[in-house]
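Problem: given the chain below (406 residues), write out its structure.
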Amino acid sequence: MYDIDQVRAQFPILSREINGKPLVYLDNGASAQKPQVVIDAITRGYAEEYSNVHRGLHTLSTIATEKYEGVREVVRRFLNAPSQDEIVFNTGTTEGINMIAYGWAMPRMEAGDEIVLSIMEHHANIVPWHFLRERQGVVIKWVETDANGDLDPQAVIDAIGPKTKLVAVTHMSNVLGTVVDVKAICDGARAKGVPVLVDGSQAAVHQPVDVQEIGCDFYAITGHKLYGPSGSGAIFVKRERMAEMRPFMGGGDMIDQVTRDEITYNVPPMKFEAGTPSIVSTIGMGVAIDWMMDLGMEAIAAHERSLRDHAVARLGGLNWLNLQGRSAGKGAIFSFTIEGGAHAHDISTVLDKKGIAVRAGTHCAMPLMQHLGVGATCRASFGLYNTPAEVDRLVEALELCHDLFG
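Solution.
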């Protein structure tokens, strides 16, 4: 039984008021709030257990190292990866994708080689590939969504040509909420000998993920969306791909031996983790993921589907609200504008006066905004602690916006 009151009680920030109104936090797509267990782990990490990892034999270093390295198994279970050695820690999905761009793609791509992207990609899964376009002449091929915001897996597979070296695709759109059939894409790409990188920043928060079932080569997640600290993240890298990669950054921990004339590298995944890491943030991410798995990813998904369905019914009844993306199986993410020309920033400001936090702008997805023909939208993105009553408060506030701007 999913006890929403018990879930909400674990998030201290949800008890506060904004502008004299109870907080309704609907900006989870940007970053989620943190449960007390994560806050406590961070506080304890700095107040009682802090030390650098891997480099010390003293008690505090041993404690920090054991907790930090223990997160690797947590992430492995969360993604059902075959081995801990295929989990690389980083500061989030952006760094993870850049690591693949610099460490795997750059050494093996030349002018004319292609990368296939969907139009729904976040800038974090666009800009690193533009670097390769600018610097090495790599070609980016785009696959667009249909009128409902769905991405046809076969269209992605059909875009793969003899010069395609990589497919990079989101698992869930941060703007439309569209859930992509990444398994079908991976199956088709594998048949053509092309690796697939999946941006799991949104999907991993809302549904179970099994990288072995999906069959992807890379799967990136970010801690701050997973109810954990900012500055934490991880990427699954299939063992075969790891063997093909060169280090992304150089420094401590990623080397075995250093002399005046040469270096030898550490074994993966350490080979791709240079310098002092975000120790406490990574430990906090592990606590957050454990907490989510204890709550149950299927239970979280079911709760959010009920929120989505309620929001679809209530928002769909506002004939002056322009909703972007109407995929039948979408996640609980809603981007919208109001007829009459009100700017998304103005709508967001009015909602904030009612204690409702949403995101306004292009959501780091400018190519998608251009595809949709909008300059900016407001986005309400729901999480595991949101309620149907908060959907109703959003609708009431939007009706006020329509009265003001419509």
